[in-house]
From TrEMBL:
Single Gene Ontology MF annotation: ATP binding
Main location: membrane
Coiled-coil annotated spans: none
Annotated source species: Rhodococcus gannanensis
Gene3D superfamilies linked to this entry: P-loop containing nucleotide triphosphate hydrolases (3.40.50.300)
Name used for this protein in its record: ABC transporter ATP-binding protein
Membrane topology: Peripheral membrane protein
Length: 317
């Protein structure tokens, strides 16, 4: 169980207002060391704005934000040496060669090796991590879109950050590259104890990566929990399918284990083609977004988050 000292991102009542529009309207959450948080939400929900505030690129209108114990809007270079950023796109340095650029960026971290910060990745090891070892000498302008995105990830992690922010990092990745990226994220979290906060529109990716999922809608967090917690809290029911003597049956229940046990007690070996289907993350996500769009009061209940980050989705009569 991680302690309060392990909290590396602490966001309380964060608000961002442009003219008379609240892009963020009271966002609150925490992230602990080594945790992978995935932020989901429709376009315009406030995901990118939240990350830009945490990175120190925007100053919030209200609320408090701390990353590695400091306000990002006033973080110094020593603080920034502990932060990694993978932007949605990176359009500079087209004439550089891949190895040269990574060597150059790694050099910026060396003055901050004061015992707190980790030593940057060796370039060869980093190229292997992101699958660019065969393109080390290539000019960046010659890379494909997927290769360029791998380089974006390498730039973000070159300094072995304590906290890594990634905004839709796998856009343009083919299935093999996406699988390699997932392995890299798990390695960073599990072996390097890096806290990762990323946004994605790929719900399957979110389910595979996340220790915890935050769902934003209308500038608010409407759910916060593990994929399983979210599915149980929103759907509550599982669909059980089976056959007896060639006849197909379907039943929905909130207690699938108990129901299946009763089936076997009654029919024994006569049960065939048994399947239990629980709500998917996509089902959960769509249900929450639709509730928000229809102003369902359950969304306001869902937004009341616990300190431990477990999901709170209360039924409101």
């Amino acid at each position: 169980m991680r302690s309060i000292e392990d909290v590396v991102i602490d966001v309380d009542a964060l608000r961002m207002r442009y003219d008379d529009v609240d892009v963020l309207a009271g966002v609150t959450f925490r992230a602990r060391r080594g945790e992978v948080l995935v932020m989901l939400g429709p376009n315009g929900a406030g995901k990118t704005t939240t990350i830009e505030v945490l990175e120190g690129f925007r100053e919030p209108s209200a609320g408090s934000v701390a990353v590695l114990g400091a306000d990002p809007a006033h973080g110094d270079e020593n603080w920034r040496a502990g932060i990694g950023v993978v932007l949605q796109s990176w359009r500079d340095h087209a004439r550089w060669r891949v190895r040269e650029l990574l060597d150059h960026i790694a050099a910026y971290y060396r003055p901050y090796l004061d015992g707190r910060h980790r030593k940057p990745w060796g370039t060869d090891e980093l190229l292997g991590l992101v699958g660019l070892e065969d393109h080390a000498g290539a000019r960046i302008s010659t890379l494909s879109g997927g290769q360029r995105r791998r380089l974006d990830v390498a730039i973000g992690v070159v300094g072995r950050p304590e906290v890594l922010f990634m905004d839709e990092p796998t856009a343009g990745f083919d299935p093999a590259a996406r699988r390699d990226f997932h392995d890299l994220v798990h390695r960073l979290a599990d072996l390097e104890d890096t806290t990762v906060l990323l946004t994605t529109h790929d719900l399957d990716e979110a389910a595979k990566l996340a220790d915890r999922i935050l769902i934003l809608a209308g500038g608010r967090i409407v759910a916060n929990g593990t994929p399983d917690e979210l599915a149980r809290a929103v759907a509550g029911e599982s669909e059980v399918r089976w056959t007896v003597n060639g006849q197909r049956y379907v039943h929905t229940t909130t207690e699938s284990t108990k129901f299946v046990h009763e089936l076997f007690t009654q029919y024994g070996d006569g049960i065939g083609e048994l399947e239990v289907h629980r709500a998917s993350l996509e089902d959960t996500y769509m249900a929450l977004v639709r509730r928000h769009e229809s102003d369902d009061p359950a969304v306001d209940a869902a937004a009341r988050l616990g300190e431990a980050g477990s999901v709170l989705l209360e039924e409101v009569s």
